[in-house]
Amino acid sequence: MQSFQAGLFAILCVVALTACDPVIIEGCQSSGGIKVYCGLEKPEDIEPLGGHPWLLISELGNGQTSGGIVALNLESDQLTRLVAGVDPHSSFPQCGAAPEKIRPRGFHVSDLRDGGFRLLVVNAADGERIERYRIDILDDGPMLIWQGCVSVPDSVFPNDVASTGGDGFVVSHMFDGPRSIWLQTKFLLGIHTGYAVAWDPSTGWNKVEGTDASFPNGVEADPVNGRVFVGSTYGQTLIVADLAGINAESVRIPVQSDNLTVAQDGRLLSVGHTGVPLFGTRGCQRLAGKPCGFPFAVVAIDPETLAQEVIYEHKDGLIPGASVALSHQGYLYMGTVFGNRVSRVRLSTENLP
Q1: Domain coordinates of the chain in residue numbers?
Q2: DSSP codes, 63-98
Q3: pLDDT, tens digit, for every residue of 37-74?
Q4: Cβ atoms 30, 36 nearer than 8 A
Q5: Whole-number average pLDDT of the chain
Q6: H helices present in the chain, as ranges
Q7: What's the CATH number of domain 21-351, 1.10.10.10, 2.120.10.30, 3.30.110.170, 3.30.70.2210?
Q8: Residue range 142-163: average pLDDT?
Q9: Which terminus has fewer CB within 10 Å in the chain: N or C?
């Protein structure tokens, strides 16, 4: 069986060779309608702080240096790395001490009724944990307060997280077990490798039935209607299911979906590579975080009807391959695990979400 898998993978490699050349992006200057915010290390995810001139960025880091949570002031273009305090009165569970360092993958911001915000972070710095923070906006910017954490089971490999209301949340489990030739082949063929997993303080961790996918990546949730949205990278689908695992459905989308965000008009935004799966980004992965481009697009999806519209495409290699796209006040902000910047473009009026 192993020899068959290796042979199949080799054949697929040969077929994909023409799509493996990375586009290295030199310098970090705004030009040609693209504004850049430089000085970051793999800014994978972006969330707005509603009603305030700030965006929150999850900075993954490069393995040698830890990442962090960065606030971008849209009025001054200033980047501020936030240092968290600790809430000694929090009733949220604690799976250990407050983290000394974090390597955030996906994260999620939700509004609190008192004007503050809740931040959930997938932290891969030392094992896998979901960190919870409170954010308050002071005169000089956001203040981050750690409230607790939940340890992720060894069987779950989380990429993104979203609040399901109350203290609950859902994560995307990318795949089981170590990377192997067979796993890579599954990715290329779009075979299921993971699913969404929900956590609640009363029931613990539970698979969300109906969300099986090939490399589940971005995840969003609708706490009001109890629904979960999962972007499948190599299945190129958006999956919708109730938390109870019923009424699951999916729609094919024209991107290898990475992180999901919610646009101001309520549609879901999915961004992803549009070239040959797996191999179209492999050249960039070998550059260890240097700015690297590949073709990608952003698709807006109605969460009710699953109708979709491509609102932005990039094929020029001027923007590092995007891992997140956030629409905010007429602009599209794009982060990346393949570079050192957040890039901004203006959306045309007809494509404005």
Answers
A1: 21-351
A2: SSS--EEEEEETTT--EEE---EE-TT--S--SSSP
A3: 999 999 999 999 999 999 999 999 876 778 999 999 99
A4: yes
A5: 92
A6: 2-16, 181-189, 279-285
A7: 2.120.10.30
A8: 97
A9: N
